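Our consortium's second objective concerns turning raw sequence data into structural hypotheses that experimental partners can test. To show how far this objective has progressed, the report includes one record in full. It was chosen at random from the queue rather than selected for favorable results. The single chain below, 383 residues long, was entered without modification.
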Amino acid sequence: MKTGNKILKAGIILAVLILTNSCLEYEITTQVHSDGSIERYFKVSGDQDMINEESSITLPADSTWEIKTWREPDDSSKNKPDSIYVYTARKTFKSYKEMNEELKNAPDIYNMVNMQVSLKRKFRWFYTFIKYTEIYQRHFPYNYLPLKDFLTEEELRYSLSDDKDYMFDPVKDKFEPVAEADTDIVFTGKDSARASELDKDIEKRFEEWQLRNINEDYCDALSKVLSKKNPEAYQLMLDRKSVFCDSLDLEGAPEDGDDQIEMLKIQKYVISRTSDFLGISENDILPSENPDIQSFFDRLAYMRLNEWYTYNHKTILPGKIIQTNSTRLEDGNSTWSFRLADFYNSDFEMTVESRLVNRWAIVVSIVVAGLLLAGLVTGIIKR
């Protein structure tokens, strides 16, 4: 990812944690049966502690799932490859609604990816059309300032990418995905300088977009508390909002310690600076006593989801696929491979539609047609 961990910083310089060089790979298979039931299969590979403690998807743990775990050699260039931990879970649901109900996160859970599934069936006598849709809901938890005021969608994807995924095109004066770029370009010193300049500009606008959204969210949460507890401090914050946000100096927040310890340090830092600026007691705005402020810090912690996680989905439908927005088919099934950048600022939707031949309808039609024909022939003979 560009400049280290901008997504983890989110304007606040958050620690890279122990996850910096780690990755979890999710393989999710959804098989839809002709009766509308759905089998869901999870496979997660990576570090065991990360899977148990840092998974971005709520993984099943109850006995209604068929759960298996094992270790296997890692595809490593080391002389002695490390083993990786593998977790799998499988369960069949009567309907997509039942699956949604079990897999959904609680409203106050901010550190897990939210997914929503729908299944539509249209009966057309000889055929039944089945359309499956799954949505990874937008990760960035703020809606105050839209991305378009700061970056293009492509610039956002560049900001969240690895260096190897993009390259600079001096003719177009932009970064392009390697798959679309002209790899034969010979760079001059001037081109390299421009690439560095553009990279820093995109980074600056990316961090400004996040930081200003975070500031707005904090002021919104603080307003709900102070408007009731301390109207004078509330009015001061409104009158000097810009200065107040600058005084928070979120870029200077602490960045030492593990995840939980660091977030507690950040909370203390923000509360202390708020107290100093508004001249109020820290006890009046403690997260433990004010749910709105606690929710702000929960949303902030949610942005620490590791950007190196990869998601691979396969959807198996009965019948023949007639439409899909996937870019790859495996054994006639739609597959998607994506990362956090694909659903950071907008929902990521996977959709596939199949056409299932109703053989019984064909048989019934043939029988009915045969009976009608036999009746017609009999009538002609009697005449």
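The partners drew two points from this record. The chain has two domains: 13-140+306-361, 147-302. Residues 3-21 have pLDDT under 50 and may be disordered. Both points have been shared with the crystallography group to help prioritize constructs.
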